[in-house]
Amino acid sequence: MLKKYYNTLIVLFLILAPTENGAKMLFPSHKDILISSPFWSCEVLGLYSCNPKINYIRSPIKVAFMDTGFNLDLQFLKYLTIERTYNAVLNKPFPIDDQSGHGTSVISVFIDTIQRIEAEIGQSIPVSYVLVKATNDLEKSPETLLIKSYAFLFIDPTIDIVNVSLAGQGYSFNEQNLLESLYSEKEYKMMQYGYYKTKSMIVVPAGNNGINLDKIDEYPCSYQIPNAICVGNMNNFNPKTSTNFGYDVDVLINGEKIRAVTKNGKYNMLSGTSFSVPQISAYLAYAKYFYPSLSRDEIKTALIKSVSSKKLCIYSKSCGLFSFNEFKKQLNVIVMSNEVISGDQ
Predict the structure, then answer these.
(1) What whole-number distance in Å separates Cα of residue 328 and Cα of residue 111?
(2) Is the peptide bond before 95 cis (omega within 30 degrees of 0)?
(3) Nearest Cα to 254, choosing from 242, 262, 263?
(4) What is the pLDDT of residue 162?
């Protein structure tokens, strides 16, 4: 009977699929479906590697920021889809004011990078935000505030990416245990905060002390949590003496003279691994949105392999400077490999 109506079904699909309502009619229970394409989407066929220019009806990527606060009065932040906010210092949702300006600048770099990616690929990447004021002082991030911040975030298992542009040389047993337990996705009780588990990817800075992390630790990078990505600062192929380096560093990207918005709404050129981190978070948002079948470990593997030239092996695990074009290639390689394995089974 299906053969009898096969041609009719194909014609119906070609008529309806290019529209959002038509797509919803055809695939009412499909989470990720094509909304503008004259042909079957890679998503429907399970072939992401064919990489057509397509749009999907899909939930936004949820990105959380843990920082010094955020000036929500600024114009560029007023139009964000903000799901939740939390002030760990006061232990309440508001205010999340930004006295130092660090958090405001960090999130502005993320937004700018997302916009650059969208312009390059000709597709939008919808993002929703969870904003956490973890500390007042960039130089002083007490363990209790960090744990409270993580706990607030990880009670939500739907968060895709956590951007933490905070680092220091103070080791925290509780922080390490919490992050390790979250990676294993086992229920874990952290003091009075309850049980949490997550599938988030955590993006953290290598730090700006010019030290070799193979010899001297900087946290949270040196915890070496599998779902954490440690980001160093590199300008072209000239290593900056300020960035920490070593095998603990997963990826290098330019963090020198990055255009960012200050807490007063003015633009400034800022430097440091803090501004390398939100760029990588944005590229991960791209991967999470367009390659939802890939696990966080597969995405991290692709990220580490995505370098333009392997000249910097003493500076990071990736041995080179991050390349978006290489990242797209590596993601497709993994998808194609998974398709072959799936086909063999």
Answers:
(1) 20
(2) yes
(3) 242
(4) 95
Residues 6+ apart with CB under 8 A from 222: 213, 248
Q: pLDDT band at residue 342, thresholds of 50, 70 and 90?
A: low
Q: For 225-266, give the DSSP string.
A: -TTEEEEEEEETTEE-TTS-BSTT--EEE--SSEEEE-TTS-
Q: What is the pLDDT of residues 38-66, one digit of tens each?
A: 333 444 333 333 444 444 457 999 999 99
List all residues 6 or more positions away from 114 whose beta carbon is below 8 Å from its beta carbon.
125, 127, 282, 285
Determine which of 5-19, 49-63, 141-155, 271-285 has the lowest per-residue pLDDT on average: 5-19
Tokens of 117: 């990616």
The set of residues, in sequence order, having a beta carbon less than 8 Å from that of 132 and lying 6+ positions away, is 64, 65, 66, 67, 85, 86, 87, 88, 96, 149, 152, 153
CA distance 137 to 142: 10
Q: How many CB atoms lie within 10 A of CB 189?
A: 11
Q: In what helix (H) or strand (E) does residue 286 lie, and over which residues does it extend?
A: helix 277-290
pTM: 0.81
- Token look-up 């995405």 returns 299
User: CA 79 to CA 32: how far, in whole Å?
Assistant: 25
Token pair in block for residue 122 = 């000709």
Taking only the tens place, the pLDDT of each residue in 237-271 is: 665 558 898 889 999 999 999 999 999 999 999 99
In the chain, the N- to C-terminal Cα span, in Å, equals 29
The answer to whether the Cα torsion of 61, 67, 195, 84 is positive or negative is: negative
